[in-house]
């Protein structure tokens, strides 16, 4: 990721650009995550799996999906399954663990991809070029989210490897509640 200045005569606004796929950092396959289990096989205090179970978006863990249009609900379920699968892939590729920020980017990608598939299905049904164009734009947004998630996961994995202790990592401070 890089901060770029604006383009054109007015110089525009500064913006963040994600690296092109061929310039993304390589995966970090070494196990950079600390073990969640003690030597006897039980969960260690402060393990990340227990912490992840406690994080729930919205009131009582609800995201309001139950109020979704039934025609869109199946696409939404697919998008959530896709995002979960992709988070697992990123975690395996980058040392067994990803941050909440990477997870949020992947979740956004899954939602955008689900919306893209829904718009494409509706646009195909009605031969609506505007819906098909919107589907393409949403798919491009999903791709950008995934590229940004890969890059951030790679940078965080490198930071975990370089850090002598997890307490040195700024995004891990205050999470041992």
Short description:
The chain is mainly alpha-helical and 177 residues long. It is built from four helices and two strands, in the order ββαααα.
Walk me through the structure.
The protein has 177 residues and is mainly alpha-helical. It has a domain of 88 residues. It is 52% helix and 3% strand. Strands 1-2 form a two-stranded antiparallel sheet. Helix 2 packs antiparallel against helix 3 and helix 3 runs antiparallel to helix 4. The protein starts with a strand and ends in a 15-residue tail after the last helix. The model has no long low-confidence stretch (mean pLDDT 77).
Blueprint (SSEs and pairs):
Layout: E1 2-4, E2 15-17, H1 48-54, H2 70-93, H3 100-126, H4 129-162
Antiparallel strand pairs: 1-2
Helix pairs in contact: 2-3, 3-4
Q: How many strand units?
A: 2
Q: What's the N-to-C terminus distance?
A: 31 Å
Instruction: Walk across the major sheet and give the strand order.
Output: 1-2
Q: What share of the residues lie within helices?
A: 40-55%
Helical element count?
A: 4
Order of helices and strands: EEHHHH
What kind of oligomer do you see? single chain
- Would you tell me the overall average pLDDT? 77
- The percent range for strand residues is under 5%
Report the sheet with the most strands, covering strand number, pairing sense and barrel closure.
2 strands, antiparallel
- Give the radius of gyration: 19 Å
Principal-axes shape call: flat
- The poorly predicted ranges are none
Class computed from helices, strands and strand pairing: mainly alpha
